[in-house]
């Protein structure tokens, strides 16, 4: 039995509590400083999570942000980052006050960062920030893969991958969190896993735009009936670009064909928030208008990632090798209509 603290009571942080509890761990879900109302709501409704629309197990302890530091003063075996990518610095600020060396951190967050004009993974960003705060010995694993949060909360069979350069760490975590419905593979390619899990969000927006991109001269009903040819072509081209991108930035090509790449691209393109944004972009909406009109308070990690890494990628990579990526980066960063140079 391990004491697991999950920070961020959004959909994924909360759903991740389910397999952790199933394994008899003691799990505390702590909201961010902006989630006090959400935490009150969950606690006063028998752990019913409003975004997941499911009652989380009664064994789950749910706490407001004000309790976080006192929780850290006690024994903590594993810290889980359940915030979205824009919350990573905030997350580090919270854990740095009481971080004990080599306490395992599990990173659920999918994203990348730019530091000193270099593209880095979020695990490297966390390590760098913690080091600046005096913590040199840090142990981070990432869990990535196809996992829509509500599906996990409902115990739908799900496969993910735990990555750490030290494979022994992944094996330890696997035993602590896997269940018969939450199976975990392991990988030592942390960089490749994080790169794949992040950029699939950009490509799932592109695949989500398939209908609108299929044939602009065709009537809408024909587009929505026959767009799958276009999707398939976009999936094929996305995977090719992902392999080249991941290899360029230091990950392994074979990682892209696994759960964190191809697997997650499928889930996100078929049922994710990124592909929904892509649908609006394909219909001709500008990113800012679509976000404001249809997805104001909804996390769209692919767009956050494009804004974070876009200028660097446009500088680093050859547009001829990455026509899809370049189209989406220009669409989001310059708030322009989505167009693909096929
Ligand atoms: N590893 C996996 O298997 C999976 C990972 N994910 C990833 O998990 C992350 C969270 O996704 P999900 O739970 O679906 O998203 P939600 O929008 O449901 O939750 C986002 C969480 O991040 C917090 N957050 C957002 N902005 C900030 C900020 N600026 N500072 C501090 N906290 C912030 C939110 O708190 P607040 O109310 O304060 O904004 C909330 O707790 C994403 O990176 C997503 O890609 C998603 C699915 C599967
Ligand atoms: O990462 C996810 C599933 O694995 C969630 O995808 P979306 O962010 O596109 O909803």
Automatic annotation (TrEMBL):
Keywords: Lipid biosynthesis, Lipid metabolism, NAD, Oxidoreductase, Phospholipid biosynthesis, Phospholipid metabolism
Catalytic activity annotation: sn-glycerol 3-phosphate + NADP(+) = dihydroxyacetone phosphate + NADPH + H(+)
Active site per the UniProt annotation: 200 (proton acceptor)
Residues covered by the Glycerol-3-phosphate dehydrogenase NAD-dependent N-terminal domain: 3-167
Entry GO terms, CC: cytosol
Binding residues annotated for NAD(+), in chain numbering: 8-13, 149, 273
Top-level taxon of the source organism: Bacteria
GO BP annotations, alphabetical order: carbohydrate metabolic process; glycerol-3-phosphate catabolic process; phospholipid biosynthetic process
Family per record: Belongs to the NAD-dependent glycerol-3-phosphate dehydrogenase family.
Coiled coil spans: none
Domain Glycerol-3-phosphate dehydrogenase NAD-dependent C-terminal: 189-338
EC annotation from Swiss-Prot or TrEMBL: 1.1.1.94
Name of this protein: Glycerol-3-phosphate dehydrogenase
GO molecular function, one term: NAD binding
PANTHER family in alphabetical order: GLYCEROL-3-PHOSPHATE DEHYDROGENASE, GLYCEROL-3-PHOSPHATE DEHYDROGENASE [NAD(+)] 2, CHLOROPLASTIC
InterPro entries reported for this sequence: 6-PGluconate_DH-like_C_sf (IPR008927), 6PGD_dom2 (IPR013328), G3P_DH_NAD-dep (IPR006168), G3P_DH_NAD-dep_C (IPR006109), G3P_DH_NAD-dep_N (IPR011128), NAD(P)-bd_dom_sf (IPR036291)
Annotated residues for binding of substrate: 110, 273-274
